[in-house]
Structure formats: structure tokens, C-alpha cells
Amino acid sequence: MANAAEREDLMGVVSGHLFANPESNVYAILDGASVPDLLDVLYGEHPEFECLYRGELKPDMAEVAPYLVRLESESSVTKWVIREGWGNNWGVFAVTPLDLGGARRHFRRFLVVHDPDGKPMYFRYYDPRVLRTYLPTCNAQELETIAGPVEWFLVEAEDSSIALRFDVQSGALKQQQFTLQRR
Predict the structure, then answer these.
(1) How many domains does the chain have?
(2) pTM > 0.85: yes or no
């Protein structure tokens, strides 16, 4: 997906899905380690955003931390994330009625998991390669926990011309896929 017309098609299709319900908030959970100049864009464009890590971070950690960014339908940040980030594993999208603070509290709960020996490990669920692999392996309780108040998630598929939408309904994962560009 390199040319301008394909990027415009992509922008229209992804935006159309994300912003279909004006009553919901749309968030991108972006991986600072994957997004070039993320902090420059966030501080320069001023969308509502919060780092998912707690406390004052050293600059090198702040650069690679995950950020929750509230997206607006026609904002320059939304256009940038979709046009430049889709296909580059920058992050995942979530649609929820929660405000920024509530969404941050929910998504912070999953940053650290424990291995079978109880050792804490970072869980990079905000990488689309991780989330699209992880969700189908979850049992009903795990799905309800990670989805919680999230209406649905949207992630790029391995083939970035395909988007995957994940909904959790009554403890079951519903996955839809749709093509983002004409072939």
C-alpha cells in the first residue's frame, strides 16, 4: 500500500469503521518503540493522550512506552496514524464509551503478566501481531477481562490490506475481516 490513492482508500475505510458510532470514543494504543517521532507528534498536535506507564519516565523510556491516544474523526493525528502506521505495526485501535482516564485504567491492567514461575513480564498486547494472535487463544473469562468495556478492537492482519475486528459477546470472540483496498 504505497501510493497516495491507496492510502486515501485505506483512510476512508478504516475511519468509516472506527467512527461509525458517534456515541463511542476511539483510541489508538501506540507503541512508542515502533512509531518514529511519536512524542514529537503528540506534543506538537495536542490530541488527548496518556502514557500507559505510571509516573515520571526517563526520556529513553518515555520514547518507547505505549501511549493511549483519543482519536477524532478528521484530526491530523488520526490521519497520520492510519496513513503511516497501518501496515507498520504501530498499535491497535479500541472503541469504547470510556473517557481517557477510564480507558487508561482499563488498558494499564494488561501491561504486566506473570509467567508460570510468577516472574513478571511486559505484555505488548498493543502490538497488532500480538493481539490478533492472543485473542483467539483466550477462554471466556480472559476475553471478558481484556475486553471489559471495549466494544471492539481493530487491528491490521498479517496482510495489511485486511483489517480484523474483534468483538467479545457473551464470553465468545467474534472475528470479522474486511478488505481495505481494491485489488
Answers:
(1) 1
(2) yes
